[in-house]
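Why do we care about 3D structure at all? Because function follows from shape, and shape follows, mostly, from sequence. That is the central idea of this module. The next example makes it concrete: a single protein chain, its amino acid sequence, and then its structure expressed as tokens.
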Amino acid sequence: MHIGDFLDRTAISTRVNASSKRQALAVIAEIAARNFALDVGEALDALVEREAAGSTGVGHGVAAPHARLAGLQRMRGVFVRLENPVDFDAVDDQPVDLLFALFAPKDAGAEHLRALARVSRLLRHGDLREQIRKAKSADAIHALLVQDDGAARVPAAGTEKAGVSAGLLNLGG
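And the structure:
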């Protein structure tokens, strides 16, 4: 499974204004409802319920909210870049400005977990996070996220022959 399998350009929003975690989740729910024919209230309730079980703020300004919803036939994603970071009770106590939300069918099993792991690994790369923060459009963010899920980034100096990408070298960033 690749990012492009569940993230459409139309489900990416840049320059989003939200002053709280709940407002950020509400924006995600609205985008999901509009793009995937979901009920906005059900989507928001599912995200809030999951967040109540424990924060999905994974660190470095990134959160990966997720929920299982009836009515979905396959995994879907929403990506939001906030204008100003918000408190998300993240593991590193840093506010969040990049949110990659996943919505899975109610009966999704391992696929849901594989998608979460893929998103987490991808956004672990500090150079990619900075490129996303500087990107000018949803199309640019989509291109960054789907480019071979980060494995095809420009190699760091001296690593071309070894086949090691700059993104793979910067795991904590």
